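Could you join me in thinking about how sequence relates to backbone shape in a protein? To get us started, please write out a protein record for me. Would you write everything just below, so we can both look at the same thing?
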Amino acid sequence: MKRRIGEHITGEEGGRPKTEVILVTGAKGGIGKTALAVNLAARLAISKRKVILLDCNLQYGDTGVFLGMEPKETMAELLQEQRTPTLDTLNAYLAFHQSGLRVLFGPKSPEYADVIGGKNIDKIISILRNYYDYVIIDTAVGFPRLIWRFRSVQPYSVCVPIDLCTLRNTKKAFLLLRSLNMEQKLKVAIMEQPAKNNGVGMADVERVLGHKVDLTVSRDDKTMTACLNQGRPVVLAAGKSKLAADYIAVAELVERGFGADKSQKLKVPLLSKKDKRKLR
């Protein structure tokens, strides 16, 4: 990519605000990675931002489950039919969610993942960042290949499970990022678990990783399961829950800018009654 994330776009798009590309990943499945990506994207879209979600878990992506959407056109069809996609041709493959979010789904079947290479994803991101305010990327589990493929993306949001085994694997990825001078891109998110069920806390995570925890999300399996069964993001289906409040706080932090003063309350546009009816 020619531009660094966070720079203002020049040329015919010079008047637009900067585009943020955020990668959400983790060392194993079932740790809230996709839920974070989907709810972050949905909340930003509700706030009247131009947002697109890329499902780059190319073999077993399930963002559609969280959104209640069945993929029709995917990244595989796009790259099979469009050797050099443009914004206009790309739009034909995007799905529209009621929140205002656009989605580019991964392949419908695992064998089509081979159609998509890192260079192709780079091209897609490069095109989308000329139009969208936020490009949110949900990824497959694992680090080494992802670190290289998305090395120009900033920041990474890494979901960290609170168990020693996976924490150890996450630390290995952090050591690699440090050796590549990429640690400054990291924002660590953890899903809080009840203390009675786990002896590992936030302080232990920070000590092992040598990195502060930037984001915390409550663990609420009951609410999450109910929202999944409805096929709706938590920020829409259970907006008054503690879990939704945590996702909203993450979105506010993203809009404010990572590293900004958290004491400054972000003014998020209020939804009109008409908008609220659409989201029910």
Notes: The chain has a mean pLDDT of 78. The first helix runs from residue 33 to 46.
